[in-house]
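Homework help board

Subject: predicted structure for assignment chain

Our instructor gave us this sequence and asked us to write out the predicted structure in token form, then describe one feature. I got the tokens but I'm not sure how to describe them. Can anyone check?
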Amino acid sequence: MKLNGRDISALVARPDDRIPAVLFYGADAMRVALKREEYLKNLLGPNADEEMRLARFSASELKKEPAMLQDALKAQGFFSGKRAVFIEEAADAVSKIVMDGIAAWEQGDATIVVTAGQLKPSSSLRKGFEGHSSAKCAPIYDNPPTRAEIEADLKKAGLAHVPMDAMDTLNALARDLEPGDFRQTLEKLALYKYDDDTAVSTRDIEACAPTSAEAELDDILNIVASGRADQIGPVMKRLKDQGMQPVTLTIGAARHFKTLFSAASDPSGTANGVGKLRPPVYGPRRDMIVRQAQHWGERKLQIALTVLTDLDLQLRSAGQRAPAMELVERSLIRLAMMAQR
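My token output:
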């Protein structure tokens, strides 16, 4: 039986040991692994490995010794509690072995948990689970976590007081980060707020969010748009040390100023223009874009975009011999000086 997103969340949160087998599959191995890990933890409890209630097989091992699966299903250990057999990196080569195991499954046997990469609709493994009356097929798509999933993760982390603006910031962060990085950010946030009963703020989230070259890029674009020319040099040095390419920096600057121009040129006002941006922006970043767009105005933003277009063409020119990063830095200083006027 194939499950939708809501059914998968319900299954992972409240596993049913009457289900003989579950298949988690998807293109993003990290997302699949996180769902499988959460499902097994909720099904077996925290000490399954130590109590030998979880057997692990790779698909290659199972292919060599097919009998291992049914032996593991029926095996009884020294510890009481639910048991599971986990088969990782499965493919059609082991679909018959897995389906035979499901056919032999009886109440009280170990639950079969299978993970796989992207499976085509014609996959025998996928079709076997989708067509079974009791086994569950859980496709994991490359979508960011839903608001309900984020709220559930916050609750697990012990973060109860999360106002709307902080939740909007977390939603935006979930779209930008890989699943594992986002989960680590929530864990770090929980430690950051340990023994602190005040509500989670956007500043708390920013303090715990991972720092990357993209964050440094945002920093320098905000410095330029705010007219702080004296701060450009040190940030440019960090970007250069991180391997940021001049063309990438130029494209990022053009994208930022196009965003400001789109907001500033909205006939209903800058704030309304920011509200129409896609993807949407929230919290302090939204306020900052509104301020910058209002400060620059439509006319100066047109000039800024012309400067960046000329810079991009110069960098891509075959006859360009001047140091590329220095050209970018000079143009950014010029823009910062424009912001001061």
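Reply (TA_rk): Your tokens look well-formed. For the description, you could write something like this. Residues 147-208 form one domain. That's the kind of observation they're looking for.
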